[in-house]
Write a structure and sequence with these properties.
Layout: E1 3-11, E2 17-24, E3 29-33, H1 40-55, H2 63-73, H3 80-101, H4 105-108, E4 117-125, H5 128-141, E5 145-150, E6 179-182, H6 184-202, E7 207-211, H7 218-228, E8 235-237, H8 248-254, E9 259-261, H9 272-276, E10 282-283, H10 292-305, E11 309-312, H11 320-332, E12 336-340, H12 348-351, E13 352-354, E14 357-359, E15 362-364, E16 373-375, H13 377-381, E17 392-395, E18 400-401
Parallel strand pairs: 4-5, 4-12, 5-7, 6-17, 7-8, 8-9, 9-10, 10-11, 11-12
Antiparallel strand pairs: 1-2, 2-3, 4-15, 13-16, 14-15, 17-18
Helix pairs in contact: 1-3, 2-3, 3-10, 6-7, 7-8
The structure holds D-gluconic acid and magnesium ion.
Organism: Labedella endophytica
Domain Mandelate racemase/muconate lactonizing enzyme C-terminal: 128-258
GO molecular function, one term: mannonate dehydratase activity
Length: 403
């Protein structure tokens, strides 16, 4: 089964998505997500200009060989652009293999190890009352785990809160980056009060998660983790930037609050120390930014050896193709922990037709052969690329801070 054609489609049904389509001489078509929020066209070019010419005429079944051909063959390794491009090829090839076999991808990965995948949704608010109302709405939908983010009093805008009237949080807004403001002291005072109020209102029977979005120093993170312990968060996410993996040793010395890291990782080498020294509890790497199903499974297998569970990134900027691919992996890995699920804003549903289901807080990828998502190229053409940037963050004195 030879690859006869490959092409990239950039479309913006509500937000920008990059999709790779691969066709074979058997008439089977596979799709992969190549979306890198705020840097979409760099991956489209990497694929179109440098990868597609290498795919034509290649044997579509040889997923592992093609993965290494693209990774080692480029000489320039790793990085979000390269690894997102490789991920798109990898997922499209798994999609093709599943369709050829007449099986959903999770069967090819070893079969279901659980009946459904626990997902967490996002509750947020400009005030604690708004947060509580949103949390209640998520409980009514059946979520067993919910992330909580609330505007910090005194800050103009806080990460994770949707613009008024928007149901789904979308951080990439302006055609130039919008600037957010940050002050760690106010946040560190407020976050434990938010948890206290939420536990008081909703008790301990539901998982609560929180994302610090890389904004703390390691010692501040240790302090926050300790302050949150009485409220038993499911996890504290991205407490500090993770370029220096050893900085998490300091956090571990100060708190037993579980730590989740890795949505910006693209390779196993980004988390080797974090995993092998057991410095984190959940690894958040995901299919689209970490080299596809093939490489993500390697990361998850390493994590399994060290008692680290999975908790893949699943924000709305990861296309429904990634969401489906993630669910296939989640259903099969022994060390599954949780999966983020934010859903997608319409009109994304006109372009991506999905088969996955949500019942009582658990998701399932469905049993359609392959990944189980159909991509409508005609519908995609109706929504041209619309340049958008993620925000930049400054402290109150104007210093550029981590976002
Ligand atoms: C999350 C994330 C996202 C990212 C976004 C960047 O935990 O879901 O932090 O909201 O900021 O995916 O593109
Ligand atoms: Mg996050």
């Amino acid at each position: 089964m030879l690859i006869t054609d490959a092409r990239v489609v950039v479309t913006s049904p509500g937000r920008n998505y990059v999709t790779l389509i691969i066709e074979t001489d058997d008439g089977i078509r596979g799709i992969g997500d190549a979306t890198l929020n705020g840097r979409e066209l760099s991956v489209a070019s990497y694929l179109e200009d440098h990868v597609v010419p290498l795919l034509i005429g290649r044997e579509a079944n040889r997923i592992e060989d093609i993965w290494h051909y693209l990774y080692k063959g480029a000489y320039w390794r790793r990085g979000p652009v390269t690894m997102t491009a490789i991920a798109a090829v990898d997922v499209a090839l798994w999609d093709i293999k599943g369709k050829k076999a007449g099986m959903p991808v999770y069967e090819l990965l070893g079969g279901a190890a659980r009946s459904g995948v626990m997902v967490y949704g996002h509750a947020s608010g400009e005030s604690l009352d708004e947060l509580k109302a949103d949390f209640r709405a998520h409980l009514d939908l059946g979520y067993k785990a919910i992330r909580i983010q609330c505007a910090v009093p005194g800050l103009r805008k806080t990460y994770g809160i949707p613009a008024a009237g928007d149901a789904v949080y979308e951080p990439a807004s302006g055609s130039l980056p919008q600037e957010d403001s940050w002050e760690t002291t106010s946040y560190l005072d407020f976050a434990p009060r938010m948890f206290e109020a939420m536990r008081e209102e909703f008790g301990f029977g539901v998982h609560m998660l929180h994302d610090a979005h890389h904004r703390l120093t390691p010692i501040e993170a240790g302090r926050l983790g300790a302050a949150l312990e009485p409220y038993r968060p499911f996890w504290l996410e991205d407490p500090t930037p993770a370029e220096d993996q050893t900085s998490f040793r300091l956090i571990r010395q100060h708190t037993t609050t579980p730590i989740a890291v890795g949505e910006v990782f693209n390779s196993i080498w980004d988390c080797q120390t974090l995993i092998t020294e057991r410095l984190i509890d959940y690894i958040r790497a995901t299919v689209v930014h970490a080299g596809g199903i093939t490489h993500l499974r390697r990361i998850f297998s390493l994590a399994e050896l060290y008692g680290v569970r999975t908790g893949s990134h699943g924000a709305g900027d990861l296309s429904p193709i990634t969401m489906a691919a993630a669910l296939h992996v989640d259903l099969t890995v022994p060390n599954f922990g949780i999966q983020e699920y934010m859903g997608h804003k319409d009109p994304a549903g006109e372009v991506f037709r999905t088969n996955y289901t949500f019942t009582d807080g658990l998701m399932h990828p469905g049993d359609a052969p392959g990944i189980g998502v159909e991509f409508d190229e005609e519908a995609a053409a109706e929504y041209p690329y619309d340049r958008k940037y993620l925000p930049v963050n400054r402290r109150l004195d104007g210093t550029v801070h981590d976002w």
